[in-house]
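Checked the freezer inventory, then went back to the computational side. Two predictions to log before the end of the day. The first one is the construct we discussed on Monday; recording sequence and tokens without edits.
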Amino acid sequence: MAIEVRIPTILRNYTDGRKSVEGSGTTLDELFTDLDTRHAGLRDRVVDNGELRRFVNVYLNDEDVRFLEGISTKLTDGDNVTILPAVAGGAR
């Protein structure tokens, strides 16, 4: 099962600079475990204590997984996963 994962600039040092990588798994948890076998350290930047990190947003086919099943969200062949760091701040 091939799933495309879009990688933000800040995490591309784990993917040798690649904007996207392919992985496999039936859930997001399995996908991040699979990706970590080829891109060591990537999972730790996205997952903490078995849950998605608070300041990392993950989208499945443009839908926020926090409104689906979080780390347990089911995946199918051909899905697109996007990892985005949360952005905060601004001027008053």
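The second is the one RB wanted added to the comparison set:
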Amino acid sequence: MDWPHDPDGEQGSEGRRKYGHAIIAKKIDEEEDFPLSRDEFVAEYGDDPVRIDYERVVSLREVFEGVEEEEFADFVELHQALGRAMRANDLWFYEGADEFVRERA
């Protein structure tokens, strides 16, 4: 895929040093951007690359597929929703991660 910028450049995963949530978090100003609209965020950054692991890069839009919430009050809500969606869509590569996740009531 032709990405709008290098997935491993400074706008991407910084030479494969950052993955998943860390790449998405770089796009957000915690002081300015919350509450954060899912649809507006995806409209702005949806084509940007997100390195999932050492082999796989997907679009930010693909990471947000399955995120049910339309708005997030803070980083914690956003990261929890992203984690659920990434695990559900096989975009979570951390070994043993399921052991640390409680099911949402």
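For RB: The chain has a mean pLDDT of 88. The longest helix spans residues 75-88. Let me know if you want it refolded.
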